[in-house]
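haha ok so turns out i had the wrong file open the whole time. this is the CORRECT one, sorry everyone. sequence first:
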Amino acid sequence: MSSINSFIFCRQTISHSPFLLIHEIMHLNNNVTKFILLGLTQYHLRKKIVLATFLLFYLGALFAKLLIIVTIKTSHALGSPMYFFLFYLSLTDTCLSTCIAPRSIVDALSKKTFSECMIQVFSYQFFGCLEIFILILMAVDCYVAICKPLQYMTIMSHQVHGVLVAVAWVGSCVHSSAQIFLALSLPFCGPNVIDHYFCDLQPLLKLASSDTYVINLLLVSDDGAICTVSFVMLMFSYVVILHSLRNHSAEGKRKALSTCISHIIVVILFFGPYIFIYTCPATTFPMDKMIAVFYTLVIPLLNPLIHILRNVEVKNTMRRLWSKKLISDDRR
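then structure:
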């Protein structure tokens, strides 16, 4: 009887504005205390294969990113602001994939509580936005290094790039807080089955017991605008950078091209799927989940490999560090 009364109360409150009192709305959400994630497949054997693949991709990406992080932190040769931002990019990418892949394996074996789902929405939005900001900072650093080399150390001092990263963290926190506020403002009276393998706002909107048209518009203006505008700005900045290389020496041009091309590849791989997914939140395509797999599992593995293979300094520093380690181990 209490569940029926709760359901009636939920239905009565839907007619009110979802932004009236966040505390009351969170009590309505208790109508749905757990979510069931359908994942990529319901077949037992295929599910095992998918989970094993998730684990392999995650461990491979984790190893590659930790390799970059350790190399940058232990090498004095990679002390420029560019590698400072690369360090934070690898760290953010690690956190982004960690909040998806391990939880997907756990959630395939058990239900996900409401609070766990909201935490995943917040962390995914936070680290995704932070990665966008860091990619922008890397483009700014690249522009100053190539177009204003004489003022580079003055403009991109340790204090400046520390402040820039702090601003990126604050901006990401504001963005993710707005996103989680939208999620918590929705009443969930049932059903509780999410047709996805992790909690994201778009699948959650389909379960809401109210009209989500306004929320969809807010998603487009927030996620879609951030992704599209950032991508256009980044591509334009790299066009300007590549155009300015015509006045550089052959050696300087080769090093700058190696760095810029690796950045451009990472930007295209990162933003392509995000723009496709988040500029059309009201529309669902059959390949949406596969695209989500690409940007949550495949891209985190490709990003560090691109930076390792395309960046000569990182590659050479890794060789020197590992050579020293092997020599020291042999002497012992």
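The longest helix spans residues 114-147.
again sry for the mixup
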